[in-house]
Amino acid sequence: IIGGPLCVSASDGQRLHDKIAPLLEEGTPVVLSFERVDILISAFLNAAIGQLYGELSEDRLDKLLSFRDLAPDDREILTHVVDNAKAYFSRPEDFDRAWKDELGDEE
């Protein structure tokens, strides 16, 4: 779907999300291969994968979404993104309030 070795932009991540979200919603298993990916960053994964945890249940994603061909470092980034997404979407109001408190009037 991305068509290149760089998975770095949130917009590319959003394109991937927009392709797989409807499949997952209808119950179709999705396997994402990261073969030939040289650079993978969290901005891409947050857009592609992280937001799914606000749209679908963790159980559904565990059953339907899988990953292959991830380098160990990239698997670690994915794990971090998923853990953060689960934490955020379990209590979004608390996270939003904390973020607003941190920024103060800078918003």
Architecture overview:
This protein is mainly alpha-helical. It has one domain (6-96). Helix content is 57%, strand content 11%. The chain has 5 helices and 4 strands; from the N terminus they run βαββααβαα. Helix 1 (10-25) runs parallel beside helix 2. The protein starts with 5 loop residues before the first strand and ends with a helix. The model has no long low-confidence stretch (mean pLDDT 91).
pLDDT below 50 for ≥5 consecutive residues: which ranges? none
Q: Count of helical segments? A: 5
In terms of DSSP E residues, the strand content is 5-15%
Tell me the number of strands: 4
Shape: globular
Structural class: mainly alpha
Question: Strands of the largest sheet, in order across it?
Answer: 1-3
Cα Rg: 15 Å
Order of helices and strands: EHEEHHEHH
Kindly give the count of domains: 1
Distance between the termini: 35 Å
Average residue-wise pLDDT: 91
Helix percentage? 55-70%
Mind summarizing the main beta sheet? Answer: 2 strands, parallel
